[in-house]
């Protein structure tokens, strides 16, 4: 399969198609985004993918429109799903070890860069890809992807950080325990962001590398290094929370969830996480979509131990003039990591005001429309 129109730059076309997605793939002066595409995909793959949009089509419709054989188009589209340049018209994401079942005729759409084919290729490619990504974020790519609201990932407060009365009114996509009750087995993967830092610097932080996913899979899925039973998954998940990881979750309408619910999460540290660390190196004010809660410290109960300052992944807590810990509310993402690490229970998560409350989208379509509306208002 080749590009019949030699006048078209297939790489520029795919970059433009990616930039048009609500997730974003902004262009840079250096054109580093083109280098990322060339490293990740073959010319044949680029030529086809660049002709897709966020609107789903069947293989027959795509083949007819681009003037290629349907069987060849189908094979190529299917091969790009695991690398997430192509998505099926399903609420789910493709993950290693997870095979999505889509009822009816299969329809395909263009997948985003982040969260999307960046993560898939970071698992496969080496130092040069990591260096190009870091350059891309610094040159402005991070701002356009991370800053628009809603964020590409949302903060879910860690278990134990919300008071019982708040738990009763908690949004379904925050209910971690319900997720673990729904499934018997879970896919848990090595963190691609830690891999990036190791490739760039030869090392990463000392926190665990096996920490992302926790996506429920069918009970008949064979147990393996990356497929854990409920007991093992819960044990690891709890350990990650106690260490101080932030839950940056995919929204509750993905992974074929019938209703908004917690379906899995990246468990992130402030030093490696592509979203949290990317926010810092790109200098943007927001990265992950904050939860609807903010940390509040009671100075009377604070013993100035500094545990919350050390645990906060976004540097939102510092000492005040009296040596007590104080939250800079504008920076707080409402993760609750400080709450469960406080030895005197001096910290709690308090709900934001009705005006600040973030309405969590109930579908991918709603998320995209919210994002496009935000971007239009920014122009």
Molecular structure report:
- With 379 residues, the chain is of the alpha+beta class.
- It folds into 3 domains: 10-144, Orthogonal Bundle (Arc Repressor Mutant, subunit A), CATH 1.10.10; 150-288 and 356-378, no CATH class; 293-349, 2-Layer Sandwich (Alpha-Beta Plaits).
- The chain is 37% helix and 14% strand.
- The protein has 15 helices and 13 strands.
- The strands form 5 sheets. A 3-stranded antiparallel beta sheet has the order 1-3-2. A 3-stranded antiparallel beta sheet has the order 4-8-9, with no helix packed on it.
- Helix 1 (10-19) packs across helix 3 (43-49) and helix 6 (113-122) packs antiparallel against helix 7.
- The longest helix has 20 residues, at 127-146.
- It is globular.
- The two termini are 39 Å apart.
- The model has no long low-confidence stretch (mean pLDDT 92).
What is the topology?
Layout: H1 10-19, H2 32-40, H3 43-49, E1 57-58, H4 59-66, H5 70-80, E2 86-88, E3 107-110, H6 113-122, H7 127-146, E4 154-156, H8 164-167, H9 176-182, E5 185-190, H10 192-201, E6 210-217, E7 227-229, H11 230-243, E8 246-249, E9 265-268, H12 276-282, E10 293-297, H13 307-311, E11 317-319, E12 325-327, H14 337-341, E13 347-351, H15 364-378
Antiparallel strand pairs: 1-3, 2-3, 4-8, 5-6, 5-7, 8-9, 10-13, 11-12
Helix pairs in contact: 1-2, 1-3, 2-7, 4-5, 6-7, 7-10, 7-12
């Amino acid at each position: 399969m080749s590009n019949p129109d030699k006048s078209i730059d297939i790489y520029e076309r795919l970059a433009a198609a990616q930039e048009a997605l609500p997730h974003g793939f902004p262009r840079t002066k250096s054109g580093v985004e083109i280098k990322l595409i060339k490293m990740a995909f073959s010319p044949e793959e680029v030529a086809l993918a660049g002709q897709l949009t966020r609107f789903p089509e069947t293989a027959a419709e795509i083949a007819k429109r681009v003037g290629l054989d349907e069987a060849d188009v189908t094979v190529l589209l299917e091969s790009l799903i695991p690398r997430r340049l192509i998505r099926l018209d399903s609420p789910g994401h493709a993950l290693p070890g997870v095979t999505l079942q889509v009822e009816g005729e299969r329809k395909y759409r263009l997948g985003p860069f982040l969260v999307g084919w960046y993560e898939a290729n970071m698992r496969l490619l080496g130092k040069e890809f990591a260096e190009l990504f870091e350059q891309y974020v610094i040159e402005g790519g991070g701002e356009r992807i991370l800053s628009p609201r809603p964020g590409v990932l949302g903060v879910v407060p860690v278990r134990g950080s919300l008071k019982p009365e708040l738990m009763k009114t908690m949004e379904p996509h925050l209910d971690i325990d319900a997720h673990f009750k729904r499934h018997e087995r879970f896919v848990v993967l090595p963190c691609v962001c830690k891999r990036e830092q190791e490739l760039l610097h030869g090392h990463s932080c000392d926190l665990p590398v096996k920490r992302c996913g926790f996506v429920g899979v069918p009970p008949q899925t064979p147990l393996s290094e990356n497929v854990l039973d409920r007991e093992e998954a819960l044990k690891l998940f709890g350990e990650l929370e106690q260490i101080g990881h932030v839950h940056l979750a995919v929204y509750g309408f993905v992974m074929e969830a019938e209703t908004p619910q917690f379906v899995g999460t990246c468990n992130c540290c402030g030093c490696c996480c592509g979203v949290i660390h990317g926010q810092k190196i790109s200098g943007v004010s927001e990265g992950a979509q904050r939860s609807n809660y903010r940390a509040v410290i009671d100075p009377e109960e604070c013993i100035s131990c500094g545990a919350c300052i050390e645990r906060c992944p976004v540097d939102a807590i510092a000492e005040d003039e009296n040596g007590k810990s104080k939250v800079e509310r504008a920076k707080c993402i409402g993760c609750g990591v400080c709450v469960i690490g406080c030895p005197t229970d001096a910290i709690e998560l308090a709900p934001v005001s009705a005006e600040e409350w973030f309405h969590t989208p109930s579908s991918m379509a709603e998320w995209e429309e919210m994002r496009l509306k935000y971007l239009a208002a920014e122009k």
